[in-house]
Amino acid sequence: MGTMEIVIEELKKIDTFTELSNDDLSALAEICTPIQYPPRDIIAREGVDASSLFAFIKGSVGIWVDYDTDNADLLAVRDAPCLVGEMSVADQLPRSATIVAGPSLSGYSIDAVLFRNLLEKRGSIALSLMKGISRLVRLSNNSFVSELRASNAELLQANKELKAAHKQLVRQERLSSLGKFSSMIIHDLRNPLSVIRGYSDLLELKLEGKSESLHKYATQIRRETSRLSGLTSEWLDYSRGEIRLSYTPVKMEKLFEQLKESIEPGLKAKNLDVSWNINFDGTALLDLDRMLRVLVNLSDNARKACKRGDSIAFTALSKDGHLLIKIADSGEGMGKETLNHVFEPFYSTSERGGTGLGMHIVKTVVEAHEGSVDISSKPGAGTTITISLPLRL
Ligand SMILES: Nc1ncnc2c1ncn2[C@@H]1O[C@H](COP(=O)(O)OP(=O)(O)OP(=O)(O)O)[C@@H](O)[C@H]1O
Ligand SMILES: [Mg+2]
User: Fold this and answer.
1) What is the pLDDT of residues 275-330, one digit of tens each?
2) Residue at a domain's end among 121, 155, 186
């Protein structure tokens, strides 16, 4: 093979030239000058007018922007056989990138002026070049689109995280301002409440056997006042941000008796089918008031979740050194969203304006007792909440 044939064979390996006729290829081969570059040699510089394009046959080149600066970016590595630098020869604009030699780079340089003359004479070469450039544009377009998509997805994720952080911040802000004012307000609320409670006790006593309806009203006032004072205690615990327990030995009998007393009127009013399975009659070391509040909160939620005629079952038993208390209702149950947030302060789905502190207090109190709360719930089927407390006696 003569030198010319070798050049033609080599040019054919380049995508852009594959489809050219031998005639076109030999015209092209005539303006090719063999070249060889040592690694890292700068073949063409960004921003400089193009005096030639390159048909590389062996090795590879790096295409860089802002080469030699702190912002240097490697756009692509092109493996031979490939045509490089054809764009700025075609559009006669300065190079858009710097071309740097990789290892054992060799091929041909083609003079820009001679190449453009050839394009004018031979439409088929111009067409091949156009196809080659379109291919390149499409390729980089696709890679830009996928990069754009990837960074878009990252942005969306970041935005989501930012929103969640913002929500958390708003909640914390709310908590801290609440914390500052709560103790003060509660302090002021407790005194009038205990006076009302005292007088309603007195009224209830005095009306007993005298007027049934007035007696009933007095009972109602006393009960609701107790509830209010329970609420103020919750707020007080909450605003302090920590719970200091006062442990006493508590007989189960007593715990459930007190629980029944405070919740039964509400349960009866809704005509719920309530069952008690207290299979543990021992004593546990608990903070009685707080644990009662936990059970009242849970019963309250169960009652709110139930329609008339639904059922609530209370179970207590001891297992592996733990006291397990279960409250199972056949009410509306919880969806995934509610389950995810149920313990968060101020999370409430209640349409009648729940504060959303009930479950938060349940968890805080139970965990202060070194116990745990477990929820199993299914929308439409009901909810079972199990609290487990270490039996220390
Ligand atoms: N047994 C249950 N069945 C169905 N949903 C429940 C149950 N217990 C809790 N939830 C859901 O969890 C939410 C949070 O409960 P939580 O007791 O903290 O607040 P609340 O009852 O809405 O208000 P409050 O502060 O007055 O108790 C409720 O709004 C409800 O959506
Ligand atoms: Mg509640």
Assistant:
1) 999 999 899 999 998 899 899 999 999 999 999 999 999 999 999 999 999 999 99
2) 121
Domain that holds residue 23: 3-121
Protein residue with its CA nearest to atom 26 in ligand 1: 354
Sign of CA dihedral 278, 282, 283, 284: negative
CB atoms within 10 A of CB 106: 15
For residue 111, tell me if it sits in a domain: yes
- The pick from 303, 342, 357 for probing ligand 1's pocket by mutation, whose C-beta has the most ligand atoms within 8 angstroms, reads 342
- Does any ligand 1 atom lie closer than 6 A to the CB of residue 329? yes
Number of domains in the chain: 2
CA–CA separation, 310 vs 320, rounded Å?
Answer: 32
| Protein residue closest via CA to atom 14 of ligand 1 | 348
Residues 254 and 113 both lie in one domain: no
Among 121, 154, 184, residue at a domain's last position: 121
237-283 tens-digit pLDDT: 766 666 778 899 999 989 999 999 888 878 888 889 999 999 998 99
Let me know if 351 is exposed, middle or buried by CB neighbors in 10 A (0-12, 13-18, 19+): exposed
Residue 201 inside a domain? The answer is no
Please tell me the pTM assigned to this model: 0.54
Pocket of ligand 1 contains residue 350 by CB under 6 Å: yes
